[in-house]
Amino acid sequence: MIQVEGLTKYYGEHAAIRELAFTISQGEVIGFLGLNGAGKSTTLKVLGCVLMPTSGRVVIDGHDVVSNAHEVRQRIGYLPDVPPLYDEMTVGEYLTYVAQLRGVTSRDTASRVGEAEEKTGLRDVHGELISTLSHGYRQRVGVAQALVHKPALLILDEPTSGLDPRQIVEMRDVIRGLKGAHTVLVSSHILPEISQTCDRLLIIHKGMLVAQGTEEELAAKMGGRGTIELEVRGDKARAVEVLQRFGSVEVDRASDGLVALTVRASPDQRPQVAQAVVGAGLELLRLDQGAGQLESIFLRLTHGQEARA
Ligand SMILES: Nc1ncnc2c1ncn2[C@@H]1O[C@H](COP(=O)(O)OP(=O)(O)OP(=O)(O)O)[C@@H](O)[C@H]1O
């Protein structure tokens, strides 16, 4: 779906991105992660045909973004870091306007606007003026304008920026709901905002791609086995004994017959761990991939280290 080779962009003397190379398959939801100034927006602008690369090549659905930008634009929906909204229009009027601008036929416009509103949870504010909407709803309108022409690829630049925690959860649900119908590329500088939504992460630092893969792949590359967190009801000593078969065990909490533990073992082993706990007569209340592991990988990649290719 997307092939990027040697992508470089200079602003004057300053290289905002250097020699980026990655591929994205159809239907994937990809998180583009990096600290402020890492080069995320610049990359997404090139993919969105808003900015010309200095060198390198980007091919989207078989079309080159430089020589065939018109074809590419028909296949993508782009939410820039500041959504291009018209305050004096209602949500419905604005989405209708954008749909027509993107070549949706008059016959299909109402249904496409309806679908976009449905996917982004905007049905109830169809007739509201954009100027009266909260920031969270404005971001949803930004996403809706990007998908109203049913593009194969959606590029969302920091869609959770400035949202409160509840709105972030809602936006995550919106993005998850897009999976299947679209390939999605979503950027953020905050790891938890995208790690739970995306199939795979591309980590960019100082304009270079420093790592890419699923959470498990990144953990393996960084030499960590990962951790599994559990909460069980039953005897603490028995729980530790059973779990030690998988790796070293830490008891995080133990009170009133409830024991919270962390096992240093690959998250791939979650099914076997669950079976062993239940087989030992303990009640399994919770079992998760250890939180914070990806966070520490991200911090190791982006703090106190020079970027590497
Ligand atoms: N129009 C511009 N002219 C000059 N330098 C720019 C321009 N836009 C971005 N830059 C610089 O290029 C680098 C990458 O910026 P970019 O906006 O792509 O990063 P980002 O990862 O999206 O960060 P943020 O999350 O803060 O938007 C930064 O050093 C930034 O200062």
Number of domains: 2
- Helix percent reads 25-40%
- Which CATH class of the largest domain is shown? Alpha Beta
Model regions low in confidence, pLDDT < 50 over at least 5 residues: 305-309
DSSP helical segment count: 11
Structural class given helices, strands, pairing? alpha/beta
CATH superfamily of the largest domain, called what?
P-loop containing nucleotide triphosphate hydrolases
Which range does the strand content fall in?
A: 25-35%
Bound small molecules, by name, code or SMILES, are:
adenosine-5'-triphosphate
Strand order of the largest sheet: 6-7-8-3-9-10
Q: What number is the mean pLDDT?
A: 90
Main sheet makeup: 6 strands, mixed
Could you give the count of β-strands? 14
Cα(first) to Cα(last) distance is: 23 Å
* Integer-rounded radius of gyration: 23 Å
CATH architecture of the largest domain: 3-Layer(aba) Sandwich
In sequence order, what are the helices and strands, one letter per element? EEEHEEHEHHHEHEHEEHEHEEHEH
Q: What is the global morphology?
A: globular
CATH topology of the largest domain: Rossmann fold
